[in-house]
Amino acid sequence: MNIGITGGIGVGKSIVSKIIELMGYNVFNSDFEAKSLINKDPLIKDQLIKLLGKEIYKNSILNKEVMAEKIFSNNETRKLVNEIVHPRVRDSFALFVSKQKNNIVFNESAILFETGSYEEFDKIILVTSPMYLRVSRIINRDKCSKQELDAKISSQWDDNTKIPLADFVILNDEKEPIINQIEIVLNQLTSV
C-alpha cells in the first residue's frame, strides 16, 4: 500500500514523516529526490536549461534563487518544470517501492494534490497547521522575505481545497500531540 504524506509549506510534513520512519516504516521524500535529480540527472538539467536558460545552474548546481524567481512568479513555468522533474521522481519512487519488504510505504511530497499525483496513492495523509505557525516556521527556516513567502504559499492549494481529498488529516498546531494522531492513522492503515 502506497501512502502519500502532503501539506503546504511550513506545516511540518517532514516531522510527521520522520516520526513515521522512526516507527519502522519506509518513507520516500519526493522533494529531496527532486532536488537531487535536478542537480544530477543530465536529461533534467538539459531540459531545464532549454526552458529557463543557462543561468538556472551555477557551477553545475541549481541556482535556487533564479529557480524560485522563475517558478513562483509564473504558474505556467512552474507547471512546465514539474512536467520535467516529476516523472523522474515517480520513477525513483517506483524503484524505491520495489526494494521494500514492508507492505506499507510512505511518500512525502509537498505538491501531491497540485500535480494530480495524489490519485496514484492508496491513501493520503494531509498535514495542516495554522497559518501564523507556518509563516513563523518558514521565515525562521528559509530566511526569506515576506514577498517570497507569499509567493511560496500562494503557489500551493489551500487546506480547504485539500481536506476533502485527504483520507487522514494530522493537525500540527503545537497543541494537539502529533504522535497520537500518527498512531491513530497507522492503526487504521495496518488494520485494512
Provide the descriptors you would attach to this structure in a database record.
alpha/beta, 56% helix, 10 helices, Rossmann fold, five-stranded parallel β-sheet, two-stranded antiparallel sheet, 192 residues
Uncertain ranges: none
User: What number is the mean pLDDT?
Assistant: 90
Q: Span between N and C termini?
A: 10 Å
Give the strand order of the largest sheet, numbering strands 1, 2, ... along the chain: 2-5-1-6-7
Share of helix, binned: 55-70%
Tell me the strand percentage band. 5-15%
**What is the CATH topology?**
Rossmann fold
- Main sheet properties: 5 strands, parallel
| Total number of domains | 1
CATH architecture: 3-Layer(aba) Sandwich
Query: What integer value in Å does the Rg equal?
Result: 17 Å
- The CATH homologous superfamily is called P-loop containing nucleotide triphosphate hydrolases
Count of DSSP-assigned helices: 10
Classification by helices and strands: alpha/beta
In total, the number of strands is: 7
CATH class assignment: Alpha Beta
Question: What is the global morphology?
Answer: globular
Order of helices and strands: EHEHHEEHHEHEHHHEH
What does this structure look like?
- The chain has ten helices and seven strands.
- With 192 residues, the chain is α/β, with parallel strands linked by helices.
- The chain has a single domain (2-190), classed as P-loop containing nucleotide triphosphate hydrolases (Rossmann fold).
- A five-stranded parallel beta sheet has the order 2-5-1-6-7, sandwiched between helices.
- The protein is globular and about 50 Å long.
- It starts with a strand and ends with a helix.
- The relative contact order is 0.22.
- The model has no long low-confidence stretch (mean pLDDT 90).
